[in-house]
Amino acid sequence: MQLKIIVLKLNGYMNKKFDFILLPPDGFHQTFDDLLSKSNQIFLNLEKNIKKLSKKEKKNFIVKYRHELQQKNFPCLSNYIVSYGNLLNYCHKKTIVIGPCGTAVLEVLKNNVQYYSYDFFQAFKKNRMIHNDFTSILYVAKTNNELIDNIKKKKIFKSGFKFENLIFTDGISLDKIIKKV
User: Fold this and answer.
1) Residue 1's pLDDT band (boundaries 50, 70, 90)?
2) Nearest Cα to 20, choosing from 49, 54, 55, 43?
3) pTM of the prediction?
4) With contact defined as beta carbons under 8 Å apart, do 116 and 142 qualify?
5) What is the rounded distance in angstroms from the CA atom of residue 46 to the CA atom of residue 52?
6) Which of 42, 111, 114, 178 matches a 20 to 30 Å C-alpha distance to 93?
7) Which strands sit side by side in the sheet containing 114-118, from one edge to the other?
8) What is the spatial distance between Cα 31 and Cα 66, in angstroms, rounded to a whole number?
9) How far apart are the first and last CA of the chain?
10) Residue 18 near residue 90, CB atoms below 8 Å
11) Beta strands in 56-177 (DSSP E)
12) Is the Cα torsion angle 102, 83, 143, 55 positive or negative in sign?
């Protein structure tokens, strides 16, 4: 991993901000019934559409992977970076981040950066280990066309919802729970 960070610095990506950032799915965004080959094709089509949109708007674009295994599972044809935990370092206030529902949604939206969600497999409905059905609060695209439409129409939150609806603000701390036991 250290070697990859050195390569990123040499390519100048460590300090660069991007207009469009595409995040591929992780393995847990799929179920055993989802074929990796089909997932790869869907991701490549998504990449092609986002790249076309970024060129049309004369904006820069990159695919950001969390780790090398994710890059091997969802290879892309565009420029990409592999780094964990520093997504916001590549964003400016007008960056458009596109990715699956997960922690990046919270990280990005909390910092007032646009995040457009996709879930082409709707794994949360089939995989009992996933408890992130954000579809009642966010527009979560089920197809490439729906995602592009959401971006063009700036459809992130459904009517009547905002970032605060994604998080619990009145929960009990773990410390208090333990003291009650």
Assistant:
1) very low
2) 54
3) 0.81
4) no
5) 10
6) 42
7) 80-82, 61-65, 18-22, 91-100, 114-118, 140-141
8) 20
9) 42
10) yes
11) 61-65, 80-82, 91-100, 114-118, 140-141
12) positive
Say which DSSP state 26 is in.
P
What six digits make up the tokens of 148? 């592009």
C-alpha angle 44/57/52, rounded to 5°? Answer: 20
Residue 65 exposed, middle or buried by CB count within 10 Å (0-12, 13-18, 19+): buried
**Residue range 72-131, pLDDT digits in tens:** 888 999 999 998 878 999 999 999 999 998 889 999 999 999 999 998 766 555 554 445
97, β-bridge pairs = 21, 115
CB-based contact 132:106 (threshold 8 Å) = no
Contact 108, 30 (CB under 8 A): no
Q: Nearest to residue 124, comparing CAs of 110, 140, 109?
A: 140
**23-63 tens-digit pLDDT:** 998 765 555 555 567 777 888 999 999 999 999 999 999 99
Q: Is the pLDDT of residue 9 over 90?
A: no
Q: Is 21 helix (H, G, I), strand (E, B) or coil?
A: strand
